[in-house]
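Milestone 3.1: sequence recovery, worked example.
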């Protein structure tokens, strides 16, 4: 079994962050491991507080994993400060981490800032470690320093992000109202478009975390970046289609829809 590491924040209601990552990894048939960078107090209504983990413990979590276990790929999620970003970057270089997928998490769906303003420039440097970077449109606008209105803008922004050092860039189109096509810019300059379908549900908590973890898992299993993105897109689409409410706000996607159905959960 391939071993995949997620380095991200914890979500107390289990819909996003480390919890979503581990669910997605399990669904892909890989062994998921975690380095927690922050603990959040959140539910389906939003994020209400964040406690960063000390850089020493973050560094030690990475150390003990890499010194004992072969890590086939790494997913990076919430990195809230410059100090944490530098600590993780140095550790990943030290252990020659491979197949790194970076989800540049900045703001939660409830508009809570998960990345400090002072850390944005540090994140831009960190991106050079990534085999793949997966920004949504608001994140892409910040990283590329431009407004994104259409697919041509998505491609141009991806090129700018690639110049920061990222090998491949997946610009997610879910924030566009007219079209939710994702655009993948590969290292060789090839552009691949993945048309999406707009699913009528508010329960989309953890979509970005789930997609990036799925892609990291598939790359760890030997798939090419393009194939991993294609399969990851198929998986997250079904997970959104089978999402469900658990509280009063935005519910989680259905990571284990087949298992849920076997267990007697009714989706009708």
């Amino acid at each position: 079994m391939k071993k995949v590491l997620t380095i991200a924040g914890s979500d107390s209601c289990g819909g996003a962050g480390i919890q979503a990552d581990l669910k997605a990894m399990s669904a892909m048939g890989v062994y998921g491991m975690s380095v927690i960078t922050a603990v959040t107090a959140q539910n389906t209504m939003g994020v209400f507080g964040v406690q960063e983990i000390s850089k020493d413990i973050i560094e030690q979590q990475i150390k003990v994993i890499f010194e004992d276990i072969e890590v086939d790929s790494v997913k990076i999620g919430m990195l809230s400060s410059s100090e944490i970003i530098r600590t993780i970057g140095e550790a990943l270089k030290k252990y020659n981490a491979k197949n790194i997928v970076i989800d540049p998490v900045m703001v939660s769906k409830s508009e809570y800032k998960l990345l400090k303003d002072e850390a944005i420039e540090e994140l831009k440097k960190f991106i050079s470690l990534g085999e793949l970077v997966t920004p949504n449109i608001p994140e892409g606008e910040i990283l590329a320093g431009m407004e994104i209105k259409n697919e041509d803008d998505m491609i141009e922004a991806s090129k700018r992000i690639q110049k920061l050092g990222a090998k491949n860039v997946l610009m997610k189109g879910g924030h566009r109202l007219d079209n939710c096509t994702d655009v993948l810019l590969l290292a060789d300059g090839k552009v691949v478009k993945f048309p999406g379908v707009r699913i009528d549900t508010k329960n989309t908590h953890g979509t970005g975390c789930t997609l990036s973890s799925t892609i990291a898992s598939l790359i760890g299993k030997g798939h090419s970046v393009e194939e991993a993105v294609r399969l990851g897109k198929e998986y997250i689409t079904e997970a959104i289609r089978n999402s469900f409410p658990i509280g009063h706000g935005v519910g989680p996607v259905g990571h284990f829809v087949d298992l849920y159905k076997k267990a007697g959960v009714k989706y009708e």
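The first strand starts at residue 3 and ends at 11. The chain is about 35% helix and 20% strand.
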